[in-house]
Amino acid sequence: ASAMSLSRQVQGTGGSSAVSKCSAAARGYIQDRFLPLLAGRRRRRAPLVHRGYYIRARAVDHCVQDFLLKTRGHPRTQILSLGAGFDSLYFRLKDMGLLHHSVVYEVDFPNVTYQKAALIKRVKELSALVGDTRGEGLGAITFFGEDYKLLGVDLSELPKLERALEEAGVDNETPTLFIAEVVLTYMENSRSDALVQWAAERFSRACFLLYEQTRPGDPFGHVMQQHFSQLNSALHSLAQYPDCGAQQRRFLEKGWTECSVMDMNAFFTCCTPEDEQQRVQALEPFDEYEEWHLKCSHYFVLAASKGMEPSWTPLLTDTTAPDCDSPVRVAGSVTAAVCAKHSEIPGLRRYGHHSALIKPNVILTTGGFGEEEAQHCRMRNFHVLIKHAGCWKAGSVKRKNPDKRWDERLYHTVSCLSNGLALVVGGRTSPSSAGLGMLWLKFCETRHASEPGDITVELVSLEPAAEPAALRWRHSATEVTFRGEQYLFLYGGRSTLEPVLGDWCFLRIQELSCAVIPVEGPVPEGRHSHSACGWEGGVLIAGGLGAAEQPLGSVFFLRELNHGFQWQAVGTHPPLIPRYSHTAHVHDAKLLLVGGVWLHSSVPGVTVIDLTTGLCLDYTINAEHLEWPLMLHNHSSVLLPEEEELLLIGGGGNCFSFGTHLNSEPVVLSLSNILTSR
């Protein structure tokens, strides 16, 4: 591709980003009345995209305002916004009265700055803030106000940039803040490195604010890179600087004396006040926590400085930021392989679904969001996998009453309570609509079902439709026995009104009503997207997402006593790394946690907790035999104890604005080496 067409593609990302910021401002995420005047077209984006652009704007504002505060004793300061596009930073700062002695220089491709200059002159509200303009059209200077200059230069051509800055009156001795918001990564590394080094060498008192992508090597990073490559806007920085530590070393080696960096999960937790976090979390119905945390772990903010007195450290806070690159101690690995099958397995590319072993070698998968008839939608069809002669056969299940409403739910549970009968509890359609109630699934089959077509399912609605306790999603439902009677223990989850539930209910299986059974001991904090397994007549709860949208690392055992149950905290050593959206199984007094999301630079594999000693070991999943990225959250898994194997079904999600990733087919993990190791 020609340099001209590549620059057009990169400019396109800037236009798209302005529209997304504008949509976030319209929903109250960011306060910015100038964005609509600059962005042009309006389009409403998804809540996940709003949050992504909110945290980006928040990080930039946090650092810029800190720079202006720290340098207010100086007679003059400069802000150099590189690749500024149609950004509104100057107008916001001027409107807030923060530019008493500062000049803002914006640099971008000449055609972008010409468009922006024409727009500013046309819109009174913008031109009034700039005031008198003069001297336009001199060399690269497209627009020239007293405290605002637009320069049309290609950033990769350093001599031209230097000449343009000189003509526009930039002073190398004045405290200067460089801003590069997803800009350097589009340049060849040799050119962006030269720019970073030039800024440190030429300016005696300088600060540099960088915001861009990181962590290309994991499944989410793979989808992210693919997206930008398809836009013809490859992310060049990632190969040479794949993590926060590498970016920090880059700046220190290029002449900057101080440099701190954090990924956006750490920034949101440590640099955003608690009340502001809560305000943003409550702005609109939201249920894409996994993709929010993954997006935030794949972007970072970096603040570097040199020659600043006092030093400029906007990312140092009272709260210790988790190290975004800290390694996880790994005990070994398990190998992932595509499961042996008689034919292709359509219908299992989905997430937010539920899979249950309804009888030996027969797995029923229901609900979720995925691919059906070549389009993405909430899944209507039920799906069955049958193991026959060592291989899996797959197909859709016939519905006895296809007109009966299933509600195409996500994040529900299915509990097989007797031969041929399963109870569906909760789930949701959209996060803004109320949780769904309960219904029975009745299985009818020929005696030795060996083909998916041998099984039919009948949906039986309940009258009255729901025990109020069932109106939740991202919860757990586990069978327990108390005094010889069977109950379903519903725990945690979330609802339309409550983003996190910490309550529980013992559901009588015969009457489907809640029983009052005493429970003592320390009550676990509320959570959703946790795991729950039956063990020794009680329930093991592990991980989950807590009230502040923070992953939890606690494990609790609900233990049966003579007169009721008791919560007991299960100690693990080393401590369990907080996670959620994983699956779990108990085998031979070992709790296996599979996949999920955590706030570390690696991806969760399989964690084995020895329930007798508390020893906690992490194993990575070796997915090199798969031809696609294995995204292990919002998946389902079924333990096949005799084979010492785990069957992983579905998983993936909507990867920010990079597209939806769905795991291509079911995967088998061989557990023999980790279940026998001591």
TrEMBL record:
Its EC number is 2.1.1.290, 2.3.1.231. Gene3D superfamilies: Kelch-type beta propeller (2.120.10.80), Vaccinia Virus protein VP39 (3.40.50.150). GO terms for biological process: tRNA methylation; wybutosine biosynthetic process. It catalyses: 7-[(3S)-3-amino-3-carboxypropyl]wyosine(37) in tRNA(Phe) + S-adenosyl-L-methionine = 7-[(3S)-(3-amino-3-methoxycarbonyl)propyl]wyosine(37) in tRNA(Phe) + S-adenosyl-L-homocysteine; 7-[(3S)-(3-amino-3-methoxycarbonyl)propyl]wyosine(37) in tRNA(Phe) + S-adenosyl-L-methionine + CO2 = wybutosine(37) in tRNA(Phe) + S-adenosyl-L-homocysteine + 2 H(+). The keyword Methyltransferase applies. One of its GO terms (molecular function) is tRNA methyltransferase activity. It holds the Pfam family LCM. Keywords: Methyltransferase, S-adenosyl-L-methionine, Transferase, tRNA processing. Belongs to the methyltransferase superfamily. LCMT family. This is tRNA wybutosine-synthesizing protein 4. It comes from Bucorvus abyssinicus (Northern ground-hornbill).
